[in-house]
């Protein structure tokens, strides 16, 4: 009976997630129709806001986690989203894309949720900076508690949130952290790129002075 109720709750949660995604897609289509009326800066801000809002709404609907022991091994409690040994405990994954270079994959199970991010990398320099910066963060995964040391294949960084994290921390604070991280990562990479370009320009100027 408990298993049947659990499956019913997850079907309802799955429907709620899908409804949030459909509503946010409707808003995004409306913004796309307004594209000719917006400047490039306003367009970027609009799409980013809709992208982050869609992710926030999906996380709020999907992060309904509860303690659930492993069905394969007695007295074990492992994140089902990682093991994937019981299909009935998994929700449908949700992929949210801002464009080809930026996307977010949200995978949910009864006791854990995994969020994988693809960070925008417009050129080779941003690619190198993003790789180094995210590797720096991954090496300190224990300090973040919810950060996965190795990202899911095809993505730059992944977070793993279990029911224990939701018990020890506030749910809305976890969601705020994920969304704020996505906002800040682009700013950090842009600032690093600007710093590298500025330093390179100064070095080139000093080097060429000896030939003048």
Automatic annotation (TrEMBL):
GO CC, alphabetical: Arp2/3 protein complex
Transmembrane segments annotated in the record for this chain: none
Location of this chain's protein in the cell: Cytoplasm, Cytoskeleton
GO molecular function, one term: actin filament binding
Keywords: Actin-binding, Cytoplasm, Cytoskeleton
Entry keyword annotation includes Transferase: no
Gene Ontology terms describing biological process: actin filament polymerization; Arp2/3 complex-mediated actin nucleation
Entry annotated with the keyword Thylakoid: no
One Pfam family matching this protein: ARPC4
Main location: cytoplasm
Family: Belongs to the ARPC4 family.
Name of the protein in question: Actin-related protein 2/3 complex subunit 4
Gene source species: Musa balbisiana (Banana)
